[in-house]
Design a protein that fits this description.
Number of helices: 3
Oligomer: single chain
Largest sheet: 8 strands, antiparallel
Number of strands: 29
CATH superfamily of the largest domain: Glucose Permease (Domain IIA)
Distance between the termini: 33 Å
């Protein structure tokens, strides 16, 4: 039985149905077999005949006005969830539905043909387990649960000397602003591209001990590619250059940096560059060379740190390289 959805009773019972928001009322026309009013509201049964509970299979749920699909089917911490919302066959969904996950609203964008999509990020700092998913549209609300599985991330021990490089408010403010961008347009298309050659030396999500103390709020927020200084770095997907930061201008931790806005809450960052070939405001295409691998900022050797953000959170870029998101 679907709580909060209208139920259709067999015609021979002589019962009419009215749906008043979250309440569902059934009134007996014959007035001789069942009480006049039965009400179902907010998971509380104020009255329901025992016969309905005993023979509930004879009840059928009226077709809901929304179809909600969550991908991937198995989600682990660090993954990006895609929530697809579309109307039932023969119906339309012309206005954006609202999507809330664990009580928080998620931006929703049109895909065309009355289809809408929301992207939900998860990170290693979150708790695994079930999360509520509430989708509302066409005066219908779907209440669902999404299970986010646990994932074990490796740990590293880092020993730092006092007086190491300290970041600046300027670079942190610029990077925070990049993560917060939710541009209505979608610039990317399909699977993202590997941003440079060379092997991955540090994976996503690695946790760290600094001088023997576990950093509760730290995880490696991207992928590190080892490559010689000067190795070309390409745009992983089409987008707009939203950030150009240089070590000489205060990007002491990130080094020479490029931040791309791919639209609809998706951004990527390219850190520790030796060369920057673009300017803020430029539009770039997937595969276009935008800079070169370097060793600037807080870096122990030539490499590219590449990160991918979804709605303000750093997610695992690997699924975007292998499957992509519509």
């Amino acid at each position: 039985m679907v709580i909060g959805s209208a139920l259709r009773l067999p015609a021979q019972w002589g019962v009419s149905q009215w749906n008043f928001g979250a309440h569902i009322c059934y009134i007996d026309k014959k007035m001789n077999s069942y009480p006049a009013i039965m009400m179902l509201s907010s998971l509380k049964l104020t009255w329901l005949p025992a016969i309905l509970l005993m023979f509930s299979p004879v009840l059928t749920t009226v077709a809901t006005a929304l179809q909600v699909t969550v991908r991937p089917e198995r989600v682990n911490l660090g993954d990006t969830l895609k929530i697809l919302v579309e109307p039932e066959p023969g119906e339309t969904l012309t206005e954006a539905p609202t999507v809330k996950v664990a009580g928080e609203s998620v931006p929703v964008f049109a895909l065309g043909n009355h289809r809408w999509r929301a992207l939900v990020p998860t990170t290693p700092l979150e708790q695994h387990g079930r999360r509520s998913l509430v989708v509302t549209g066409n005066n219908t609300t779907r209440n669902m649960l999404v299970w986010v599985g646990d994932r074990r991330f490796p740990t590293q021990s880092i020993w730092l000397r006092e007086g190491g490089p300290q970041g600046t408010d300027h670079e942190f403010d610029r990077m925070d602003a990049l993560r917060a961008m939710v541009t209505p347009q979608k610039f990317w298309n399909g699977t993202f591209r590997r941003p440079t050659s060379g092997p991955v030396t540090t994976g996503y999500g690695i946790r760290r001990y600094y001088n023997g103390v576990f950093a509760n709020d730290y995880y490696h927020r991207g992928l590190d590619y080892a490559a010689p200084t000067g190795t070309p770095v390409i745009a992983a997907a089409a987008g707009r250059v939203a950030v150009v930061g240089r070590e000489s201008d205060g990007f002491l931790i990130h080094g020479n940096t490029i931040g791309l806005d791919h639209g609809q809450g998706v951004t990527t960052v390219y850190l520790h560059l030796s060369r920057i070939d673009v300017r803020e405001g430029d539009m770039v295409q997937a595969g276009q060379v935008i800079g070169a691998v370097g060793n600037t900022g807080a870096s122990t050797g030539p490499h590219l740190h590449w990160g991918l953000n979804v709605n303000g959170k750093n997610v695992d870029p690997q699924p975007w390289l292998s499957g992509g998101f519509e």
